[in-house]
Amino acid sequence: MLAKRIIPCLDVKDGKTVKGINFVNFRDAGDPVELGASYSKQGADELVYLDITASHEGRKTFVDMVKRVAANVSIPFTVGGGINELTDVEKLLNAGADKVSINSSAIRNPDLINQIAQHFGSQVCVVAIDANYEEDDWICYLNGGRIRTDKRLFTWAKEAQERGAGEILFTSMTHDGVKTGYANDALAQLSDMLKIPIIASGGAGSKNHFKDAFLHGKADAALAASVFHFGEINISELKDYLRKHDICVR
Amino acid sequence: MQKVVVIKYNAGNIYSVVHALRRLGVEPVVTADEAVIRASDKVVFPGVGEATTTMRFLKERKMDELITSLTQPVLGICLGMQLMCKSSEEGNVDCLGIFDVPVKLFVPTQQTQKIPHMGWNQLYDVKSNLFSEQLNEQFVYFVHSFYVPMCEHTIATTDYIQPFSAALNKNNFYATQFHPEKSGDVGEQILKNFLAL
Questions:
Q1: What pLDDT is stored for residue A24 in this prediction?
Q2: Would you say domain B4-195 falls under CATH 3.40.50.880?
Q3: Does B78 qualify as catalytic in the annotation?
Q4: pLDDT value at position B3?
Q5: Confidence bin at A31 (pLDDT 50/70/90)
Q6: How far is B17 from chain A (nearest CA, A)?
Q7: All domains in chain A, ordered by first residue
Q8: Is B112's CB within 8 Å of A122's CB?
Q9: b or e along B125-162 (b: 16 or more beta carbons within 10 Å of the residue's beta carbon)?
């Protein structure tokens, strides 16, 4: 049976891992390559590295980090942040990344999804969506949750699929950092609507939140950051817990 | 030390397999050079990409004739495996024909069956010296929308929508639909077994 995936997400700034609490304040959580390798040992199924550096030097550091991850980690990993055009994708794939995640650039230039799918295949293209629940609808945001758009979660996710996205990574800004569970109703609606896998993100605080994301949210994978970085949840123990609840994990 | 070649062509991310081989202590040569490929002990034919474009690329460079005529152990991975089959529904293209079986598109029967088949799934009924008994029921990493049906060459089975060929073998040709280079310790063991052939 296809296993549900557990994905630690590592935010990287100037070569170091950080984690945003509601996208604003940062706490230091260590070396990205070592952290990734240790997650792989704990049983993580994939890794996501998000580059939150804006500077040119920071970008170069990130590509070097991608090369080191590729050399040292034997599970798949996705990279995102600062990808604006096809050449950015090519650079990161050549450095050894398995997939790229695009967010703001996909909203600004949706054709980028088509281009990535055509050149490298849909499986490479993860479309990340940050959305906040406001007045009975899910509103998509740009730039790490700083700029509100007129896009709505469900119509945008559907469009991304039609353009060639291989996966949707949905982060609920409403739930992110709050640790009260994932946006399960919205996740289930996405899963029922789309043909491609859905990665749940935002809100994990305890093991049962992962169970709920898989059972109620029908997610194919669940992503989290701080609960793993600060050792609040051990991935191997999380998987034992999920197995006890009849969820197929590796 | 044995000479291992990774065939260089217009496929994405062939360096994953290079890294995986390095972790096993092998320094592979990445090349499209016929003489170097022929003189090697093991050949890896990786692949992430699209069937039609890749077949055209291989034919233009006569790499199709080269690959089919190799006599040392060859390991096709993912798209590499699909290209070693007879044909592919991805663009309805004729492929290398090493394995006499057509590659088909997954057709989901339930909403929960997402395409691509992406993530970790289990191996069953493992056969041949590419696998050992302990690898039965182990999880390996898949990313694909097209699959190879069960056939006489199947040496490992995975169940997604229906049972399909997770790995194939015919004479010196081996192939895996999953990515051993991305499958943690289990994948490393499979690559080790290939290197030991």
A1: 40
A2: yes
A3: yes
A4: 97
A5: confident
A6: 10
A7: 5-244 (3.20.20.70)
A8: no
A9: ebebebbeeebeebbbbbbbbbbbeebebbbbbbebee
